[in-house]
Structure formats: C-alpha cells, structure tokens
Design a protein that fits this description.
By secondary structure, the protein is mainly α. The chain is 81% helix and 3% strand. It is built from five helices and two strands. The chain has a two-stranded antiparallel sheet. The longest helix is centred in the last third of the chain and has 31 residues.
Amino acid sequence: MTASSDRLLRRTLWANAILSVGSGALLAALADPFAAMATQVPLQVLGLDLALVLELLGLGFVAFGAVCGWVASRPDMPLGWARAIFVLDASWVAISAVILMLPASWTLTGIAGIVVIALVVADLAILEYLGLRRIGSAH
C-alpha cells in the first residue's frame, strides 16, 4: 500500500474519529436536553429512558472514534478494521432509516437530528468505501 493509495481512507478515518469523539462527548454531556427535544412524550428504548440511551450512545461514539483514530494512525493501516468501520457506518445509516419508521412521537428537531447525522455518516461511509476500493486497486 502506498501513501497515495491510502490517503483518502486515512483522512476519512481521521475525520470520522474527530466527529465521533466530538459528537459523542456532546451527546453524552447533553443527553437529557437532547432527549427532551427529540420526542413529544417521554420515550423508552428496551426499558431505558431515551436520555440514558443517548448518553450510552454518546460514550459508544467516543470509543468508536478512538478506534477510528487508532486505525488511521497505524503506519500499516489494518484494513480489516477499516472495513469493519465502513460496515458499522453503513449499518448506522440503515438503522437510522428504520428508527424513523418506528412508531414514536419524534419532534421535527428529533427527525432532523437523526437525518442530519445519518447523512454525515453516509458521506463518511462513501468516502471509506472509495478509499478501500482505491487501496484494493493499488494491489
């Protein structure tokens, strides 16, 4: 793998790391107000209040971002990990669509938040796919 063949993937993974850690920390810190803005009535997910789910999700984003940064920082990028990140990002977009179809009393703010995050993650997934493909064609 040459430096030019992995540049797109490496930069995308760094962007993913920064966005995931930043948004995860924000989500964990502000889970209560975000939950209140997202739905018209209190919502529970698997028996847990939405605020707790958002806080846990935020902490998960921070961990995911750390993994993205670790993968991007390796001199010989572990492509298996990079592929797994791509799959997780693509899955996030699909799960977001399913969440919007569930019977919940989302507010316009809640819907917009889900859609905007899904679009950002979709962009990252597309760039990761292109980066992985570029590396594959370089071999």
